[in-house]
Amino acid sequence: MILTGPQIEVARRRGELAIEPFDPKRVSPNAYDFLLDPRIRVVHGDLDAKQPVATTDHVIPPQGVILQPGALYLGLTLERTGSRKYAQHLFGDHSTGSLGIFVHVSAPLGHAGHDHCWTLEIRVVKPVIVYPGMIFGKLVFLDQLGDGGDYQAGVPKYTSDQIQNSQLYLEAATWTN
After folding, report:
1. Distances in Å between the alpha carbon of 177 and those of 26, 51, 172?
2. Are strands 18-20 and 128-130 parallel, antiparallel or unpaired?
3. Known catalytic residue at 121
4. Could you give the CA distance from residue 67 to residue 70 in angstroms, rounded to a whole number?
5. DSSP-based three-state secondary structure for 111
6. Rg of the Cα atoms in the chain
7. CA-CA distance, 130 to 16, in Å (whole number)?
8. Which tens digits make up the pLDDT trace of 141-172?
């Protein structure tokens, strides 16, 4: 079951979910609008699932940066979000989508216990200027049916306030051919 905007605020006040920094103006009927962090990473060259990726990090200046089609960018939500009780689901929204921005190519589920800034997998259809701190998408919070465990209790690969590259190559030795 998805939390409504008012229930997001109630759950936050009760300490059942965290959104930092929080702005009540960005609560919508069924979601919370997240912002684009100023840090962005450009992924270079051909990609191989068995190898680390080559990247360069940049800071988006106040006047924005032009994202180009055919490139893969890794960004970050400005907000750190998490909950031991609720799972999270990250989406783009109409505003970014209608500019041809794919905010998050895959992995939109944040497990209960996942407490982090989200790494965004950004692609664009046409050249488009993005700005630090712009509204970039939505987070919804989902009530769990049953005990789903706690993501942080194990050894999570992707929990950070930094942009996270794919770490799939770390598992390559376990793959069967």
Report:
1. 48, 17, 10
2. unpaired
3. yes
4. 9
5. coil
6. 17
7. 32
8. 998 776 655 555 555 555 567 888 888 888 87
The yes/no answer on whether domain 5-147 falls in CATH 2.70.40.10 is yes
Query: Among residues 26, 20, 146, 156, which one has the least CA distance to residue 78?
Result: 20
Percentages of the chain per state (helix, strand, coil), in multiples of 5: 15, 40, 45
**Both tokens assigned to 6:** 């008012």
Judged by DSSP in three states, 129 sits in strand
The 10s digit of each residue's pLDDT in 95-108 is 999 999 999 877 77
Other C-beta atoms closer than 10 Å to the C-beta of 44 total 12
Q: Which of 38, 31, 39 has its CA nearest to residue 5?
A: 31
3-class secondary-structure state, position 55: strand
Between CA 52 and CA 160 the distance in angstroms is: 18
pLDDT tens column, 52-86: 999 999 999 999 999 999 999 999 999 999 998 99
Q: How far is CA 142 from the centre of its chain?
A: 16
Q: Name the residue among 75, 107, 78, 112 with its Cα closest to residue 91.
A: 107
**Beta bridge partner(s), residue 58:** 40
DSSP 69: T
Q: How far apart are CA 112 and CA 118, in angstroms?
A: 14
Tokens matching residue 134: 């712009």
Q: Per the residue annotation, which of 9, 16, 121, 171 is the catalytic one? A: 121
